[in-house]
TrEMBL record:
The gene is pdtaR. Residues 5-119 form the Response regulatory domain. The modification 4-aspartylphosphate is found at residue 55. PANTHER family: PTHR43367, TWO-COMPONENT RESPONSE REGULATOR-LIKE APRR6-RELATED. Keywords: Phosphoprotein. This is Stage 0 sporulation protein A homolog. It comes from Neomoorella thermoacetica. It holds the Pfam family Response_reg. GO terms for molecular function: RNA binding. Residues 125-186 form the ANTAR domain. May play the central regulatory role in sporulation. It may be an element of the effector pathway responsible for the activation of sporulation genes in response to nutritional stress. Spo0A may act in concert with spo0H (a sigma factor) to control the expression of some genes that are critical to the sporulation process. One of its GO terms (biological process) is phosphorelay signal transduction system. InterPro entries: ANTAR, CheY-like_superfamily, Sig_transdc_resp-reg_antiterm, Sig_transdc_resp-reg_receiver, WH-like_DNA-bd_sf.
Length: 208
């Protein structure tokens, strides 16, 4: 497995050095480091690390803003460092990809398990999101195909099985997804219906 690249955003140089030492000793790569939030954001967007260790006491752009941008850009999971336990901090960051909270000074016995858990859980969440996205796409395609089948059944007097086979055959003949064929049928039907309506409206207006 490829070594994880970790970015450290922490204002304290000695703390950053200590974190780097512990991580490198465990085989992790340091993607980069920054002493303030603004620099951290620029570098994180460029370097695309696998994990961000974020100090809640960052200067400049604060840690919450950095976490918000990381979440919006879907960059990486976050481990948040704090000087003490704050329930309010946890509440304010619970919608962000913060997978662990560690109290400073950070010990290796808590850092490494937190890193491993954050990386593993983020991969799991990402896979689930991808699966959900595929299911939604499949459901949307199925709805489009069902609608196109209904149009073929109504306009051509086909059975459901015949309408489906017609869609399937056109999909194979043209080497395009069945959803694309179905969408074309729906658009053509709507245009035809719109033309009929316009013609009827024009005829009614003339008789009036």
């Amino acid at each position: 497995m490829q070594q994880a690249k970790i970015f450290i955003a922490c204002a304290d140089p000695s703390a950053r050095q200590n974190l780097k030492y512990m991580l490198v000793r465990e085989g992790y790569l340091i993607a980069g480091e920054a002493p303030d939030g603004s620099q951290a954001l620029r570098m994180i967007r460029t370097l695309q690390p696998n994990l961000v260790i974020l100090d809640s006491d960052l200067q400049g752009t604060n840690a919450l803003e950095v976490a918000r941008v990381i979440d919006e850009d879907r960059v990486a999971p976050i481990i948040l460092l704090a000087s003490s336990w704050h329930r309010n901090l946890i509440i304010r960051t619970r919608d962000f990809p913060v997978f662990a909270y560690l109290i400073k000074p950070v010990q290796e016995s808590t850092l490494i398990p937190a890193v491993e858990a954050a990386l593993a859980n983020y991969r799991r969440v990402t896979r689930l999101e991808q699966e959900i996205s595929k299911l939604k796409e499949t459901l949307a395609s199925r709805k489009v195909v069902e609608r196109a089948k209904g149009i073929l059944m109504d306009t051509m007097g086909l059975t459901e099985a015949e309408a489906y086979r017609r869609l399937q055959r056109q999909s194979m003949d043209r080497c395009v997804p069945m959803k694309t064929i179905a969408e074309a049928i729906i658009v053509a039907h709507e245009l035809q219906q719109g033309g009929h309506k316009a013609k009827n409206d024009s005829g009614n207006s003339g008789r009036a």
